[in-house]
Amino acid sequence: xxxxxxxxxxxxxxxxxxxxxxxxxxxxxxxxxxxxxxxxxxxxxxxxxxxxxxxxxxxxxxxxxxxxxxxxxxxxxxxxxxxxxxxxxxxxxxxxxxxxxxxxxxxxxxxxxxxxxxxxxxxxxxxxxxxxxxxxxxxxxxxxxxxxxxxxxxxxxxxxxxxxxxxxxxxxxxxxxxxxxxxxxxxxxxxxxxxxxxxxxxxxxxxxxxxxxxxxxxxxxxxxxxxxxxxxxxxxxxxxxxxxxxxxxxxxxxxxxxxxxxxxxxxxxxxxxxxxxxxxxxxxxxxxxxxxxxxxxxxxxxxxxxxxxxxxxxxxxxxxxxxxxxxxxxxxxxxxxxxxxxxxxxxxxxxxxxxxxxxxxx
Amino acid sequence: xxxxxxxxxxxxxxxxxxxxxxxxxxxxxxxxxxxxxxxxxxxxxxxxxxxxxxxxxxxxxxxxxxxxxxxxxxxxxxxxxxxxxxxxxxxxxxxxxxxxxxxxxxxxxxxxxxxxxxxxxxxxxxxxxxxxxxxxxxxxxxxxxxxxxxxxxxxxxxxxxxxxxxxxxxxxxxxxxxxxxxxxxxxxxxxxxxxxxxxxxxxxxxxxxxxxxxxxxxxxxxxxxxxxxxxxxxxxxxxxxxxxxxxxxxxxxxxxxxxxxxxxxxxxxxxxxxxxxxxxxxxxxxxxxxxxxxxxxxxxx
Lengths: 362, 301
Description:
The structure holds 2 protein chains of 2 kinds. By secondary structure, chain A is of the alpha/beta class.
């Protein structure tokens, strides 16, 4: 009853662990030698989300990092922006590196000096797109929020993009979209694209237009989900025929044999980012860890284990073609997706959520 | 709002606390030494943090009552608070109607049967609330056990919409909270002297009359303890409504979590104060209601 949402997230992730397409036997690219500047001693405390993701991270880059740099990695589950705030506020910082999103980092930075600047001297900036780099956070995981649908629901018809999602006649059945629970934001982007805005003109979002479009689809939404396990569960149980969903979860669902597929066009390209809380006890090691994990080979190793993409341009060449075809960062897929605008959301989130809450209960 | 430690706690504490617990002389004597360590622990690791958190609602960033002023005009809050109270009420009534007969039966069983029944009652109690919520998703789903069975029996043609509704929240919460109702009632019923209903029967009371005039009044302290416990726990429910509820079934704890995630801690604290306040008012009200005090006093005899 008092479990937090993060616990819930981790637990539901664990319950789905057997489904996850964790390719345990995938051959992983070698990391080889590393720059001397990344070597060191002591430890670094890394906080992620637990579950399959953390298992993959351990294998992909935590273990090699220990061997190659001499720095011990202690990893924890339960990354949480609120805990970062509380730790910095009370001067009791226990974490060195936290997996968050740029939006979260920006939101907290608006309220004070809560994060260290990333040391880009160490980072492989030549191969990391400036779009992935931010003063106080470095993107480290590329994923997508996409349209997932049951392939047996529409007699072979394939929904493409959000106009089809909004088309209740051509694609009848119940649907689900993300709600405003937890750290997620409502999918206004999808709504404006359904209303005819082209993918490159989504931002800045016309909020009135988005809510007008949401009005139309609202009656067929049976659930505004807020944990990643829910949309896949509902697709499996035929509670919905279409839903927005995280691409990694869909890969797991397909691996489990459920007749469901991803429709990539007009999906949102999102990223998780490493950030270092202000006055982290092992700040120097944190910077080394961040630089190391975003190198081409460690990123490619993670993407080979779990279908989330790399921020390093050299990684794709190191990933097996079959696995690459599942990644949101792969050529041919990335172009179809709309890069999520963390800046816009950081500036507008409070106002949108206020309106959203009223709208949802109306 | 926070989880209640396992078994055993409710009945005793609820019955002892209201009765002259604030008598200073009684506190200074022996019992104070016994309670002291726990009291210190709770004050340091529970009382202080909770108060500090609640203080945020009027001090962050500077002394203000703006948060509470905002509350009064916040339509979202009013709707969610209303829904929270409604859910708690329905769940409490549901658990009382289902739990009371079970507790009554428990008190009349032979020891072996009673042990088995008690284990059955407790079994789900020890299962994670998350697992039980998921189980209800499996049962109530469109392709779930209930719909499939009804369809196989030709009772319905198209699946009923059971999951993602208020009904699903109510039924799942009744299931989850049922032990909290059964245990206090059963514990009180077991203390009722078995010769009393026999005496009533001997004086010509029908079985129903003996139940109504003897068992029912004597078991009231348990029923009241269970009712309070279930109602208060319901007010803070989070996971179950999130998993099996419909689009509009937002509970107050979900709203608090959302405000925390928005880094809007003062408003979240303000909502928490309101939830805590409502709970305390309720507890106080039960002390004032006619008959209720008597029920408590009887129980603490």
